[in-house]
Amino acid sequence: MHAVICGAGPAGVLTSVYLAQLGYEVDVFERREEPSQAQSSSQHSYPMVLANRATVCIADAGLQPACCTEPTAQPCCGHYSLGKLRGGGDPKRMGPEMVTWVVDRVGLAADLLAEARRVCPDRIRFHFNAALTDLDLAGRRVVFSLTQPPSTNTTTKEVCGYDLLVGADGASSGVRGAMCAQLPPHRFSAQLLYQSVVVYRTFHGLPRTEPELVPGIGEHQPKQHLYWYDNRAGPLVTFWLNEAGQLDGLVSKVMDWSAPALSSLIRSTHPAIPTYLVDGIVEQVCPKESSAEAPAAEEGVVLVGDAAHPVTGHLGQGANMALESARALAAALRRFGPGRQAEALAAYSAERAADTAACQHLEMSMAAFALPPAYQPGGKHSKGDSSDVQGGGGGGSAPFSLLFRLYASWLIMGSMMVGLAGHTLAPRAFPLPIWLMAATRDR
Fold first, then answer.
1. For residue range 264-292, what is the model confidence (pLDDT) as tens digits?
2. Shortest CA distance to 59 belongs to which of 351, 327, 394, 441?
3. pLDDT recorded at residue 153
4. Region 45-60: what's the mean pLDDT?
5. Residue 380, exposed/middle/buried by CB under 10 A (0-12, 13-18, 19+)?
6. Is omega for the bond preceding 222 within 30 degrees of 0, making it cis?
7. CB contact at 8 A, 141 and 41
C-alpha cells in the first residue's frame, strides 16, 4: 500500500510515521524547503503550546522530539501576562496531564522529521520544495512540481499514484480544494465552520537591553515562558525567548498595519513594552507585503490538521487538534485492518467531526467574545504569518451578529465562572487555564 501525504508540517510528519508503522510505503511532499532548527526564527515559525493530549500522540508513535522531551527541553512554567507571571511553578506537581511545552512551529516540524527518519528510515521518503500542481481523484493520481537547488535552476514534475492520499497542507489546503472541485456536493462538503478572524505577523531576533521586558528575564530559559500583552481592543503582542537569548514573537488583532498606526497603538495600549522593542517589532512586521501565494474522506483521500479543521489562536488548540487527528486516523486504520481502508477513513471522519466542530465552535465563540465589533468572521485567510498579511474581514462577510455575541458572552463567561469556582475550591484538581486569565484581564 502506498500513501502520499501533502504537507510536512507537524501533522503531516506524525501521520507519515503512523502510516509507516501500519505497513504503508509513504511519500511526503512539502512545498517549502526542509525545516530545520536554523529556521526557527523564520517568517513561517511562531510559538505554540503543546498540551499533554498532543505529546501523548507523539509518544504513542515512539517519537521523542527534542523540543518537548526532557532533558533537552523543559516544560512551560507559566506565562507572563502584562508583565506578571501567571500560573508559575512546577507544572509536574499537578500531574502529567497538566504539563505543557512551548515550542515553535518550524522547530517542532524539524524535530519530528528527525525522529521520523530515526524510527522509520526505510519506509518514509520526504520531498521538499515540491508544490502540488494537479490532483485527479478519480484516477488516484497526483502531480508535484519539484524545484531543484538554485545552482541547477531547474524544475521537474513527479507523478504519483496512491492508495491513500492525506491532505495535511494547511488551512488553504490544495487537497481540500480539489475535493471541493471534483466531487459532487452530496459526496463532500467543503464548507468550513468559519474562517479565522485572526491574522498575525511574526518578528524575530529582537535584542534584550535595558529596560528588560520583564524583571529577571535574563535568568529564564528559552521557551520556558510566553510573555503576552493583550486587551479587548488589541493588539495582542506575544514574546518568547529563543535559543540565542533574543526575543521572537507575533502581533495579531490589528486592523491597520501601517507603521505609524501600529507603533502608536502598541505604545498607547501596552506602555510596559519598552520603546526599543516596539520599534523593532514595527520595523519587521510593517514593511512586509502580501506574497502570492471537518475531517472529510472520499475513498482514498482524507484530511488532517488545519486542512480539515482550521482554528484561530484564541484557544491555541490548532497544533493539539492536528496531532490528535493523526493518531485518530491511525487508530481507525488499525481497528479496521487491511482491506478495509474506505471503512476506516469514513469512521475516522465521523469520529473526529464532533470533537473538531466543538473546538471550532468554542474558538469562534471566544473570538466573538474577545474581539471588537469591527472584526468580521469571514475573512479570506484562516491563518497568517509575516508573508500572509491580508484578512480579518472582507469578502462581503458581516460582523458577528449581536445575538451571537450575546450567546458567546454567556458561553465563555459561564465556563469561566465554573472554572474559577472549581479552582477556588480545589486548586490542584482544577488548575486555572491561562486562556481563562487572558479573557478576564483588562475588563
1. 999 999 999 999 999 999 998 886 544 33
2. 327
3. 67
4. 88
5. middle
6. no
7. no
- Reading the block at residue 232, the C-alpha cell is 479587548
